[in-house]
Design brief:
The chain has 15 helices and ten strands. It is α/β, with parallel strands linked by helices. Strand 3, helix 3 and strand 4 form a beta-alpha-beta unit. The structure holds FE2/S2 (inorganic) cluster (FES). The site of FE2/S2 (inorganic) cluster (FES) has 10 residues, from helix 14. It catalyses: [PQQ precursor protein] + S-adenosyl-L-methionine = E-Y cross-linked-[PQQ precursor protein] + 5'-deoxyadenosine + L-methionine + H(+). Interacts with PqqD. The interaction is necessary for activity of PqqE.
Length: 381
Amino acid sequence: MPNENQGLSLDGQGKPLWLSLELTYRCPLKCSWCNNPLDFADYGSQELSTAEWKQVLDDARALGALQLGFTGGEPLLRDDLEELVAHAERIGLYSNLITSGIGLSEERLLALKAAGLKHIQLSVQSSQPGLTDALVGARAHAGKMEAARLIKKHGFPMVLNVPVFKQNIGEVDAMIAWAADLGIEYIEFANIQYYNWALMNRDELMPTLAQVREAEAVVNRWRDKLGNKTTIYFVIPDYYEGRPKACMNGWGAIHLTVAPDGVAMPCQEARVIPGLQFESVRDKSLGWIWHESPLFRKYRGVDWLPEPCSSCSEKDKDFGGCRCQTFLLTGDAGHADPACSRSPHHGVVQQAVAVREQAVRFQKPLIKRSAQAVITDFMDA
Ligand code: FES
């Protein structure tokens, strides 16, 4: 096995346990924190066909994949979603739909259930219609609320995913109250990661540490109140942690993303790193890409790590952090992740935090994913 000569101990024993299949970059929303590439529109006409996606599913299953997320963009925009879910079910893959909820009619939900969909992750941003609609750049709030109701009505296990940033961090209390009322068992408050669109809007989106701590305290009060009925995750941004996150559980360890045009990557953001050789499932087998391609081998394991990571006692826990973030913040994906306080590049993260901590008011409008639309009304610090 190619992994052996890289000195690895992969949790998945060399298998891509978790697949992230980005069926399309198309989306009816215009979120300013979207993690799709800035040039997503360039890939619009290159989406894999139904037959090509089925081949990806077969190949991934043969490699040992167990579960997958159909994601995007908005995966509901693919008319063949039910067909792909059914195929995944037939070959023994556990399917999760990661959706904004826009377009999730009751009819479609029932069709997906009949096809074998097992789990849904629904993203919501706020309990207030005006705030949600302004944030996502579309009339979406009512549709999202209805999608949540339908998902519960039809008995799907679900995670309510709330991307957290400055403009909605004050919504944590109201969101939990609403979700608990609806009987949602898992709520994830995910402080956003600053790549692509979110990085462009970072100074406007980043909450202060005090706001993060306050929101965490609200979550803890609800945890006490709700007990085992509801599990609430609250992910602290690594900018404030002083330690890097174990991104993807290590590069090329258990995670495999396939982009709409068939490019297979160790994470959804890898295309931000220049100089890497990206391969498409249209040209190469998924098995070769996973095991042999220079892209997946580049930062796999811990043998390649620079100092101070290579002599760090935590390298087997965090695998050196996030390559994409490191490139975006330092210009070299091979540096030590600047989120780590031991990194010689930690200053760039400290500076971003300091800028945010000092800002009294937001200065700039948020840049929307697709255009230069402006939202300004709820930006007081
Ligand atoms: Fe690419 Fe972290 S997002 S390695």
